[in-house]
Specification:
This protein is an all-alpha fold. It has helices at about 10-25, 30-55, 60-105, 110-115, 125-140, 145-150, 160-170, 175-200, 205-235, 240-245, 260-290, 300-325. The chain folds into 2 domains: about 1-195, no CATH class; about 200-325, no CATH class.
Length: about 325
């Protein structure tokens, strides 16, 4: 069954971005067909969820439908980003060793295609597939520079793209391939050492952000929301006649608390989710230099912050229930 037609509701930039990410993940299904199936599944599942939620909560079905559909699409998009970056990071890690192995094979007198094919080791993972494909393309007569740049269309990595462009331009300038591969591999290793030193120096900032979002914010929101409930229930039962206050000239006016505890609870949960989302992106930016590297921390921060929030509320209720009745 073809689902391509269901990709039409997507805006063109979003559809292109989805299909591009799907091509990077090496999913065997055709990207457009898979994206159409995702839209149909999200649409039908959101309808089901919206009817269920609307039955228990007095809100419009349209609100639940739009929220569910958007959440499913966002979750799948972030999942694709994480998979794509994970594959690219693994290739970046093993690329220097692969380049050094290719350089050694060339210095040993092997031809370019054999040097590449013999450098494809199982421990290189997804890079092994790219090396094998590169060797086959060179054997078939494709120019090595074009074959190298073809890898950049299948792997989403800025470092890899720059390295392969450097090798390709060096070959066009008449440089020796073995020397180019060796120098590129050494540059990669040096850059990796620099990145690790920078990462170690900013770990304190990452720890501070993590503690503030996972422990500080839930502690403050948990205690303050419970305090609002206590004040609301306490002042609700307090009734001092105004003539008593006026007879003693007491400048005090006790009124009912107008803040709804349910609103405070929802506000706290929303802020915790909001802070966890952008805090995770900030952790990724500080620690790895890219916001999307922090996407994998979003579920962890949300679970920790909301879980601790309710734990603090329950603990405060247990400890202070006797004091406030």
């Amino acid at each position: 069954m073809r689902f391509n037609i269901f990709t039409l509701p997507y805006p063109t930039p979003l559809r292109t971005s989805f299909i591009e990410l799907l091509s990077y993940t090496k999913i065997k299904i055709e990207p457009a067909n898979f994206l159409g199936f995702l839209f149909l599944f999200s649409f039908l599942f959101s309808i089901l969820i919206s009817f269920i939620l609307a039955y228990y909560f007095s809100l419009s079905i349209l609100i639940f439908f739009l929220a569910s559909f958007f959440l499913i699409q966002l979750t799948f998009y972030l999942w694709l980003v994480v998979i794509t970056d994970k594959r690219a990071r693994f290739i970046e890690e093993v690329l220097p060793d692969a380049l050094l192995l290719m350089s050694s094979n060339l210095r040993a007198g092997l031809t370019i295609d054999k040097a590449f094919l013999l450098s494809a080791r199982p421990e290189f993972g997804p890079l092994q597939e790219e090396i094998l494909r590169l060797g086959k393309e060179v054997t078939a007569g494709k120019e090595i520079g074009i074959a190298l740049l073809g890898i950049t269309r299948r792997v989403r990595s800025r470092k890899l793209s720059r390295a392969l462009q450097l090798i390709s331009s060096g070959l066009r300038s008449g440089g020796k391939l073995a020397d180019l591969l060796q120098e590129t591999a050494l540059d990669f290793k040096n850059q990796r050492l620099v990145d690790r030193k920078i990462r170690a120096s900013v770990n304190m900032y990452v720890i501070f952000i993590f503690v503030a979002i996972s422990f500080g914010a839930p502690l403050l929101f948990g205690l303050s929301s419970y305090l609002v409930e206590i004040l609301n229930s306490t002042f609700k039962d307090v009734d001092i006649p105004t003539d008593v206050l006026s007879s003693y000239n007491i400048p005090l006016s006790i009124q009912k608390v107008s803040i709804d505890p349910t609103f405070i609870l929802g506000f706290a949960i929303f802020n915790l989710i909001f802070s966890s989302f952008f805090g995770a992106l900030l952790i990724g930016l500080i620690s790895k230099g890219r916001e999307k590297d922090g996407i994998k921390y979003i579920p962890l921060l949300i679970l920790l912050s909301i879980g601790l929030f309710f734990l603090i509320r329950i603990s405060a209720q247990t400890v202070l229930s006797g004091l406030f009745g």
